[in-house]
Amino acid sequence: MIEPLDSRVLPPGIRARFIPGVNGLRMHVLEAGIDQPGRPCVLLLHGFPELAYSWRKVMPPLAEAGYYVVAPDQRGFGRTTGWDPDYDGDVASFRMMNLVRDVAGLVRALGRRSVKAVVGHDFGSPVAAWCALMRPDIFSSVTMMSAPFAGPPAPGTAGSAAGSIHQALAALDRPRKHYQWYYATREANADMMDCRQGVHAFLRAYYHHKSADWPGNRPHRLNGWTASELARMPTYYIMDRDRTIAETVAAEMPSQAAIDGCEWLPERELRVYSDEYRRTGFQGGLQWYRCRTQGVGCAETEIVYGRTIVVPSMFIAGAMDWGIYQTPGALETMQSDACSRMSDCHLLDGAGHWVQQEQPEPVVRLLLSFLRG
What we know:
By secondary structure, the protein is an alpha/beta fold.
């Protein structure tokens, strides 16, 4: 049986263990700080293709400030087990409401009735948002990172946002395709696992391409959900039609000098990701995209259409992160309609998509100010 993540790859103050019986999962978690009654708990939810390890720079300072901090490998990722890895398997277990059940189940398994905050990055951001929206009695506040939350879908619209965009993208002079629908294909996992450059180099190029280190990341608002507007985004979002994601990011592989100088993700830390993904594959995380693009379980979210997040909320992203604009209007809707008590929306200089890894110090400052406020 697989062991918890080796303490030798973890920063001082972070420990790893398993928590069984979490909505059918044996959940692998990283934790920092003292777990005792009365000490407020903060949950940190990662995105794709990431792990609980993505919070390694944020956890110790939060713990030093007096919080008990827990970051799980979510369903489909890392050392958490109990999920179906087969493309033709139980994809519905990865639907949003079941991911919320995972997080609520983790709170119960920790012996708590509520937590001070749930914080989510990338695809962890909508999970955190839905946790706060559905169970404000459990999740006392929420911070979303990199992926704005526009609220529950209107009845009859869940899973149908794409419309005819695929045909329009393919018909461009430079034929394109949307990455989320590509991630939902049967071939996507093998494209990543069996790519020519290998998993480690694939992840290096992928993380680099979406970071502030890549000079092409100069995001701005898009005017609408049209092919011509979407095609203004980099190829990691709006891909060339006949390229895989591994081929896409290989074209932007950083130089060896840039790799050697990458302080926010040195090779020894990237190795933790590549070792895990070589073992598990990417299909677990890709199932999340299948549910989203194919509308699996989306109809059950329509029942709360019109409900807002009523607990205190905050948004953090990198100023060089295209993710905040990839769904036109979502950032504005989050602030005006989806959240009733949003304190602020912070875009941090010097960060792209991986904001809590690229700029951990300002992220920690913002989180502590929010939690104390």
